[in-house]
Amino acid sequence: MTWTVKKIRRGILATTVSMATVIPVGWSVGVVAVSVLPATSQAQSAVRGLPDFTELVEQVGPSVVNIRTLEKAKPNGAAGPGSDDEMQELFRRFFGVPIPNAPNTPRPTPRGRNQPSEESPQPRGTGSGFVLSSDGYIMTNAHVVEGADEVLVTLTDKREFKARLIGADKRTDVAVVKIQATGLPAVKVGDVSRLKVGEWVMAIGSPFGLDNSVTAGIVSAKQRDTGEYLPFIQTDVAINPGNSGGPLINMRGEVIGINSQIYSRSGGYMGISFAIPMDEAVRVSEQLRQNGRVTRGRIGVQIGEVTKEVAESLGLGAANGALVRSIEAGSPADKAGLEPGDIIIRFDGKPIEKAADLPRIVGSTKPGTRSNLTVFRRGANKDLSITVAELEPVKSAKSAASADEPKSAGTAQSMGLVVADLTEAQKKELKRGGVRVESVAEASARAGLREGDVILQIANFEITQLRDFESAMNKIDKNKPFNVLFRRGEAVQFAVIKPAR
Fold first, then answer.
1. 448 lies in a domain?
2. What pTM did the predictor assign?
3. Is residue 244 among the annotated active site residues?
4. Which of 272, 386, 387, 440 has the fewest CB within 10 Å, making it most exposed?
């Protein structure tokens, strides 16, 4: 699995409200502050002031679909959909496992000693999606369809189709699938720039396999930085496993986001959920439909935030820009003349207000483009010209591992860690081996690891190549904390990864 927040991507929390309560908990109604009206009149005014979602549900509901995924049965002894690691991954990525006896929950047919047939795919999980165009293109989350051998789409009229995966982008968690159908009710895409904090929004999806469930809330924040390439929309809409890939809808009946993640300490919804902004998702989907993959630009730098103290000491003024911490040898940044310690303040005329802005702006630049950037160096601005290179696609630990070691890949993913072998150039530069962190989430992210770090040692096992990493991950006790020695830039440091309980 790739980098995630991870992504919920868990249980259900409920608030018990007394039947005598007039105004629902969490709703603020100004008209009840001070009034000479009778209590019944106050209650009627409060009810009239609340939004009515019925028309929105009728309008958008037919465009929302249920997505079930199947995978081929594993050989005896291999980890299957019911294994602990798999279950953790499914819930962690908000890949809702259908609850027993829930509507539309597939039930495996007993075979022998309750062993699944190796010939027929077995249920893997459920998610949500929505019709992007009337000719059968459907948008969902990448983690909903990841690893599936079959994807089944069920419409609200109960028609079921086998879907073809057009493409999936792990970095943004966006995927597009296609079914053979026409005349489908497509959603209307809204303008995310018009979205305001405090605005009412609604979600439709299949939490725990319960099709077409509707929840509502407000926008809590915009531009929330929880991912490398996406500024998420934060809401308090109730989102649970199975809602992944479903639409976030404004009061005009327009889709403004894809429900993707939740923040949780309990494993269930805790009042904070995140959606992928629809403008970002549409850009990704267009590339997926055209090319089956997404190309992004890169310049080969590791960056950090510019603190207020550093900005003041350098004479920069406001704490804006991205601090260049290191530069890859032979990269576009190296060839353009960037230096460690430079602060990138503009790229192609766009201001870099915070470090997270740079990878997003560079990533959206077409590889091969000649761009201009401005750096703050030793008290003065300096303009440089740089040719953007292409960012390599995300590699999964499973695809990088040898065919006879599938379990080690799963162990790495359960820690939220995906790594790859170093290139010969990187080994030569570092003067030793190791594995490069390709993406990081969950326990590894909490420990402080980042994409680009080079892991040198795990629990006192030396790591010189991917095979060493996989061997070490198989030997350690996955239920206990373990240390990782890694290199970041020119320095090495330790981190302690504590698996989730």
1. yes
2. 0.60
3. yes
4. 387
